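HUMAN: Now follow token order:
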Amino acid sequence: MLLEKIETLLKEVSELKASNAEELEQLRLKYLSKKGEISLLMNDFRSVPADQKKVVGMKINELKQTATQKINDLREQFAEAEATSDNIDLTRSAYPISLGTRHPLTIVTNEIIDIFQRMGFTLTTGPEIDDDLHVFTKLNFAADHPARDMQDTFFIEQSKLNDVTKNILLRSHTSGDQSHYMEKHEAPIRIICPGRVYRNEAISARAHCFFHQVEGLYVDKNVSFTDLKQVLLTFAREMFGEDTKIRLRPSYFPFTEPSAEMDISCHICGGKGCGFCKHTGWVEILGCGMVDPNVLEACGIDSKVYTGYAFGMGVERITNLKYRVSDLRMFSENDTRFLKEFEAAN
């Protein structure tokens, strides 16, 4: 009985036909899968008398080989038909296309985001094309501040609505994302805002007309400068190593008061002094400070109840410190020789 069943299956598989790849896959599953017809024969094979096992076993192997060969032949026919069809892309390269890697700026941005998210910050983004109100006015920039000049900011157009003139521009910093967020959300707020920004600067090895920033904001009751310092120290050690030291120097920013610039101990020379840190042992990486009460009020947050801190850093700056890239233009030239150097960092 088992031999008759095998002969019947041999006849079936020798006459197999399929009109498409999906039908072929169904045939493969029917005959060659773990629960297919040929596998089920092995259950009956156990009850075959010992003197017949050799003959029956050879027949099962013949059946399996025939089915496999038939499936492979049909698969090759479909591949040949597809290759000769009109759907073939004649513009496709004859050479294999190698997989790319993440851009070094993306690698560093993701690392920065990961560090702050582990400290409880929420990721948010804002528009690259914004208005003067959110980029400057709500952030306490004076009407005659140099950043509002055409020489510094890319202004796109002026629009007028209800006798109110609105200047549309390419954002010059991601701080505008914070004003948008504070308008729409109540405190407490703990966010981090990465993004591309634009400034009207001459392109050189040390400057570009567009670059990337990551800014952070924390607004709550009883937030102090000590909280800011501890968060930045944690970030510096996570990013550059446990032995990293920081120092804060007084500075000025329109949207924070008091304000500071933060340096880290040079991780190249260990703070002893080298050409990279200009023999000072310190390298500046970001600006920070306590959010000015005027900014909180302009965004609808009661400055008598809430305080906050903010910080901002350039991604290119951090990337240079980690990988020592000497020319900023290399980040935007898409030279594959340069990008391949970061394969191990992915």
Notes: The beta strands are 122-123, 129-131, 155-161, 164-170, 189-198, 210-220, 246-253, 256-265, 282-291, 307-314. The first helix runs from residue 2 to 14.
